[in-house]
Amino acid sequence: MAGLVTKHNDPNASLGWGERIGYGTGGFAFNMINGIIGSFLTIYFTSAVGLNSGIVSTIFAVSKVFDGISDLIVGRLVDKTKSEFGKGRTWLMRMCIPFAITTILLFYVPANIPSMAQYVYVFLMYNIVNAVCLTGMLVPYYSMVSLVTANPYERGLLGNIQQIFQTLGNVVINSTFITLLGKFTSSTETLYTQRAFTISMIIYCGIMVIVSLFCVFSTKERVRDTETPKTETKTEKKKDENVMVTVKALLSNKYWLLLTLGNFIVFFIIIFYSMGTVFYCQYVLYDMTKYSLLSNAISISQFAIMFVTPLFMKKFGKEKVYTIGMLVTTSGFVLSGLAGGNATVMIISNVLKGCGVGMAGGMALGMVADTVTYGKLKTGVDTVGMGNAGISAAQKIGLGLGQAVFGWVLAAAGMDGALDAQGIAQPESVSIAINIMYGWMPAVMAGIIFVLFFLFYRCERDMEKLQKAQS
After folding, report:
1. How many domains does one find in the chain?
2. Same domain, 210 and 257
3. Coil, strand or helix at 9
4. Does residue 114 contact residue 122 with C-beta atoms inside 8 Å?
5. Among the three residues 172, 204, 219, which one is the final residue of a domain in this structure?
6. Residue 100 CA neighbour count, 13 Å, CB half
7. What is the pLDDT of residues 105-158, one digit of tens each?
8. Which is nearest to 162 in space by CA: 186, 137, 180, 129?
9. Terminal CA-to-CA distance of the chain, rounded, Å?
10. Is residue 363 situated within a structural domain?
11. pTM for the whole structure
């Protein structure tokens, strides 16, 4: 595996494809497990264990608070890490096995204990898996983009490659998980048995550990404090980079703040179209057979565009591709608002959404690395861990708040699930609310980000000026 590592130690030189792919496999590893947790954990708790879905949902919601806090803690740990393996790879190596073990235990809720004890077990294990182990891999992994290379193009390319591998992780789970449950189920009537989930998770978690270690040993961190004399000043070496200094440096970094806002908005609208597609098909189109067409229009176009975004990035730069992506995303949501229930127009609008989010998402990770470098050049404070942690927290808050807002708006519009069971149509206000949330509300939010980045985001230009001034 070490043969895949690019032979040079120059942080500004190009990487080989072996190391680029090696980095991408890390995204495949954790997103494969994350995809299972996101898609199948609820049905495991309710169908295989028999827990109440309302209580389980409350546990998930409350746990988001701990999850967000842990991002900042792990980010600080990454910043302070000193190891021969580097700041990021060290934590991937440390956390992949605990992540595997705790995830298996999460899918092994003891059956012969009181129900209250089961809920306590779920709360504890869910938070250990997400707030401790998964965060302990995600933040260091995203930080590695800033640590493996200082080359702006390579950072953008690594960000795009990891997006491709993360999507591939989802494809693998979607294609194999149900089959594996069927192979190991202990029942002739249902796939959702304790035995099926536990054995399947042992297999997937074993693969995750192997692939994570492959990522560790097929990459190399070249950007270290002692290896960047051109961009380091005496002031930097003397700074006591405590938490408040780091936070102050981030809050004074206008480009990091803009990108954090951008990530919050993108993930807010992602949950809107992920949830919204189901509701749109059921209560606007009144045809659930269209669900596969509409959802795949987003997923397939998003996956496809990421293979060509590196070409756009090389020609135009990361921030321009990101900004254009937000414009395309905005146009897709506007078209959704204008579709008026036309399924063909909706498919076209979802292709635009997928292309736009794919362009922006493919650039985002490399742009985070650039904002961290810009901030270090400007303030002398290295915020690679906390900077990536803040972005990660913004994404999680966007997903959680987006889900809550969607439910609150539906409730305010008068949606009543009991009407469906009686065969009675929902009030027209529900269809109107869904149209607003599936089209116009995300369009306004994405449009604001487009305008802000178009007018104010010039990180690549300003970073280059600072590098020249300090060389």
Report:
1. 2
2. no
3. coil
4. no
5. 219
6. 20
7. 999 999 889 989 999 999 999 899 988 999 899 889 988 988 999 898 888 889
8. 137
9. 35
10. yes
11. 0.68
